[in-house]
Amino acid sequence: MTTxxxxxxxxxxxxxxxxxxxxxxADSDAHSDAVISVERxxxxxxxxxxxxxxxxxxxxxxVGRGEAVGYIGANGAGKSTTIKMLTGxxxxxxxxxxxxxxxxxxxxxELARRIGVVFGQRSQLxxxxxxxxxxxxxxxxxxxxxxxxxxxxxxLIELLDLGPTLAQPVRSLSLGQRMRAxxxxxxxxxxxxxxxxxxxxxxxxxxxxxxREFLIAQRREHGxxxxxxxxxxxxxxxxxxxxxxxxxxxxxxxxxxSGLAGTVGAQRVLIVDLDRxxxxxxxxxxxxxxxxxxxxxxxxxxxxxxxxxxxxxLAAVAERATLRDLSIEEPDIEDxxxxxxxxxxxxxxx
Amino acid sequence: xxxxxxxxxxxxxxxxxxxxAQAGYRVSFAxxxxxxxxxxxxxxxxxxxIFHNTPRLGGLDFTAALLVFALANLTFAAADLLVGHxxxxxxxxxxxxxDVFYLRPLSLLGQLMTSEVxxxxxxxxxxxxxxxxxxxxxxxxxxxxxxxxxxALAITFGTAIMAALFVAVAGLQFWLLDGREFANxxxxxxxxxxxxxxxxxxxxxxxxxxxxxxxxxTAYLPTLxxxxxxxxxxxxxxxxxxxxxxxxxxxxxxxxxxxxxxxxYQGAGG
Lengths: 350, 270
Description:
By secondary structure, chain A is of the alpha/beta class. Helix content of chain A is 33%, strand content 25%.
């Protein structure tokens, strides 16, 4: 359940040996290897007739080359504001942000050649043109050499299964098709950093799975760095090996997902439908029996991803009953995040 | 230089795609084209009605008024075709389209200006071109260096002046997100002022539309040169040759407004 961890050394945490990289100071080697380096980054919005709002408040973190980082938090926690400062859309009120070694405001155009951004809610495609033409225009904008552009578009079309939609106007694409097209558009120029803001919002299970597989493969093959905001725990589990939790503009957690879930006790729940009424499935290793319906035809088991896997739990269940169907409830990110804040101050690290 | 050429190539590709997109909706395009043609003819009728009742107005006879009408409409419609969508900036901001511009390696203003071409304005432009030809023939204008040169200056720099008004207004709209009506004062107001003889205005208005928003430079002053008319207070024919300076002035102000607007949007002060 922690796909992707093998790709990178666990570096850049404030609590491990490479603290300098995390804080982006002094050590120039660490600095140059950081794709994102943020130091005491602050953004205050003035509100007329109200107190000022610090959407991002003295945030410090860095993301090393090749890392995949989930950036999570409740709505309004400061995620989008951070991303806007990382991409040169917004100016910091104080503190510094460097993306790909560049000042995002001054080096915006150079930066735009080196990063790819997918905003789930806003499109970078031309809605009134066939999808294929959007790719042609973006290739011209990024000044890709025609042969290289054709090869790259061909790859992306194949990997993201966009072939049948190329001749369709963008406005007529389904949400899943459009999101895959958005990802292709953001990756056309082979950026070294991909920032995805809610990439799977509104997608069905199959579309989500496809998109995640694609991103995992991109990372494996090109060593692309990934920064992802999402409300979907599945995205984080499949794609990220590090989680940053932001709340009220402050960094509340920096570490692994299992560390996060383990610390706050968020568990996954396996729901099994059995072929006949069965006794309560007590005593399955590393699980807690939550309850049963229909005289034990449907049973619910909670487990911690740090202790066991869904596969192991299923195997143990299968020894005792015949399975007909199953589903897994993921811990809800909002819930995990809420628990962090109710934990004692300073008590949580990765 | 290579950098700039690369950008031009990108803008050309974007513009070509905009033209194709409009060609894809033939009925809607034809309707729009007819609408702007009709609007142009309606305004022409207004000029005709006025001069049917009075032989001269603000020192212009009917022929001169036609020439002013033609140049004002031609330059405004050409600017509108090229950059008129700049006043849609608040919509772009709301829809997040502006943020997408930030993520591309091109200038923001360049992307805004090339984000659309309103080919339907060709309707109004064609009315203006026909009226221009009629006015030149009626006025018995001889093709001298002065008349041809002034006509060329008026069309190119007049369009530049009108385009600058749209850009200036886009800059202002970073502050006035619902300020389209206010913004229209400068663009459509400027265009309306350009259609009149400067002499019909009281002094402060005439000075405003000559030296602040140099609308008089797009049509009235060139008409004085082309038809050999004397003009009047703060409106002498020789001023028309300063058209490039007027265009540079208004573009300077426009770029300043745009730059300040962008800084305001990014929250970088200003």
